[in-house]
Amino acid sequence: MGDSRGGCCPPMDLFRSEPMQLVQLIIPIESARLAVSYLGDLGLLQFKDLNSEKSPFQRTYAGQIKKCGEMARTLRFFKEQMLKAGLSPSAKSLAETDIDVDDLEVKLRELEAELIEMNANGEKLLRSYNELVEYKIVLKKAGDFFPSAQQSATAQRREMGSSQMGEESIETPLLQEQETSADLSKQVKLGFITGLVPRGKSMAFERILFRATRGNVFLKQVPIEAPVTDPVSGEKMEKNVFMVFYSGERAKNKILKISDAFGANRYPFTEDHCKQALMISEVSGKISDLKSTIDAGSLHRDYLLRTIGDQFEQWNLKVKKEKSIHHTLNMLSLDVTKKCLVAEAWSPVFATKQLQEALQRASVDSNSQVGAILQVLHTRELPPTYFCTNKFTAAFQEIVDAYGVAKYQEANPGVYTIVTFPFLFAVMFGDWGHGICLLLATLILIVREKKLSSQKLGDITEMTFGGRYVIMMMSLFSIYTGFIYNECFSVALDLFGPSAYACRDLSCRDAYSIGLIKVRDTYPFGVDPAWHGTRTELPFLNSLKMKMSILLGVAQMNLGIMLSYCNATFFSNSVNIWFQFIPQMIFLNSLFGYLSVLIILKWYTGSQADLYHIMIYMFLSPTDELGDNQLFPGQKTAQLVLLLLALVSVPWMLLPKPFILKRQHENRRQGQSYAPVQATEDTLHSEANHDSHGHGHEEFEFSEVFVHQLIHTIEFVLGAVSNTASYLRLWALSLAHSQLSIVFYEKVLLLAWGYDNIVILIVGIIIFIFATVGVLLIMETLSAFLHALRLHWVEFQNKFYEGDGYKFYPFSFAMIEDEDD
User: Fold this and answer.
1) How does it sit in the membrane (predicted)?
2) What is the DSSP string of 558-588?
């Protein structure tokens, strides 16, 4: 599971996982970090956590991991800043230099502090710039309408004062001043406030001002043509310039609070026209100076980010490696002298020499006085499962692993899946025209695999790209079965010579069998094209594909049972050979193996025997004469013998095995209480053998074992029938694919071709292409893929595959490089 790293794996097959060993490493503290680093480059050790009882904060290297986490946070901050600036980390591969982690930490901290300071200064300058831009707009707009607005406000004030001259009412405005009502001859000077308010809030702003002051204000608003940048939020928004005239301090305070609540920005304004022009000139000068300062700061900031971007990937990889190294070191335990670290790890047997060389190199490079020690431990613990795969076999292995990871050195169905999976898919998808389209699409992915593998793809695209070689095999087998079915977009072609049949008269195509006469030798490969288009095509192809599905299904189920024999032999489990493999082979082949032989005999002899009748009455009336259904001499006797063997094989599977396992358990408990520890390989095989029955070290429960065996026996007996019937999906989906192709070809393409109209023809061709791609090349491909997956997971693998192991996940820097941030 997992690709081979750097060609480290020796040539091997995939039938069984790599032999594994549990090794103990004793590493001096001064060379521990370098040793773990070299082992990470090697990528062939899966460390065990020897400090599982400790929390992450209690471990030896918690401080270093915290430091690496802080550096990773800083690098994420740099990446965010680069993305905001429209920059990206340099993609060019830099040769890794030896960077000291402490120096890198100091450098990152300094760069972060400098960047934060530059950001803060830039934000302050930008806010000041935006405020000055708004101030300039207010000065220009308010200067245009101030005289007229002031006259209107004064007139309104006089009008309100005269109307209230002799009135004493509870409706007197709240902001009415006592001095005003006492002496109307005094002229009240109106104050004013100017600023900008968001246009979306301007109506509510005006309404609240009117209600809060009982109408004792005068508001003038003028919209700004172009959106302006808000100094606070930094967002572009449409605003209005407003000017509020008021009388009295109470009114002023209310206006200030309301403007703050509505996010209005207030700016000072003078009545003197000359001072207004002078202020506009001063503001324009400040804007120009700030613009130059902001541009210079932005250039300096971009230069700093580019400098960071050139080394970002190198720094990021260094921090990731350091963090993973110290995380691994935290899984090691200190010895009693506090001078060495002790590690336990799983590794492939072939990697022993490479591990020793890496440890020796670490000792030399770290100038350690004491070398690291590697020794193999004997254990009864089940090792992880490790398959050395390449880019071709990895996808097929993933199909198997999705069902369950193989137990240690269990027979791996992935070897056979490389051939059987695409072949069963092709049986359901057989059309060499569609197969070629599928192959061309896959070749695009294969040709561009280097470019695509370095890009971040979508979920569907990444899944398709990962299975590109599976799809390639599926398309190649589809071309092969398409030649057998003689179908190219549902059209039969004389590719391998002329048809063996010819028409006797013009009406022969409407006849079932009369009218076609054989005039040549049999068509050399695949279905004779003369069958296509006749009334007998569907019955003939139905019979052919249905019987072929049964033959393929029985063959694959027999292969599964044979693999259970391979497992039993490898693990020296004679009980499974005699009381599982043999009765299962007898039962399956006494019924459905016999049916397969009858199918072949019927094809060979051309007999008209009814196979349904033979199989049904083999159970209902086994002693009756066969009559016309007899295919070979002695068939009746053979059927009686096969029926008897099938009946005997059921108790053969059920009864002896639990009693034998009980006796073996008693013998082990009595005679092997003080037996010495076995060698590693024998121990692992013995342990796997015992665990396969669920009672290796636990107390033996005869009732549980018997019930488990009963369930297993019933499952196999019923599954032999249901699994064989399940393979008929090969026939059903092949028929559906063929008929859909015919419908699209005849009812779309040929129908459009029949009209003497170029527009209808073009529309028909477009519909045919979209229907072929959408339905036949995408939906039908997915459907056939899922059905082939089910046949492998359920019908094939349940005959022998336990799939209760766990993957080998080595500590490898190559995996760290593939991880996202």
Assistant:
1) Multi-pass membrane protein
2) HHHHHHHHHHHHHTT-HHHIIIIIHHHHHHH
